[in-house]
Amino acid sequence: MNHSIYSADRSTHLKVVVVALVAGISVAGFGISARLGANDGYTQTARVIKADRPVMVTTSTNTAIR
To answer: Where are its TM segments located (predicted)?
Structure first.
């Protein structure tokens, strides 16, 4: 094996490319599996609030309906 990238032959370059490809695939696989495993129900959902009747909020405990 050559210790310089400038004087490396074809097989050394191929080994470097294969090691980089395996490392990239393993990092991507780890990221995807970590993301899929983190589904603990903390997803955001749209909440629908329907209008009922007008309510005026006061400083007392009673609410006044107009």
So the answer is: 12-32
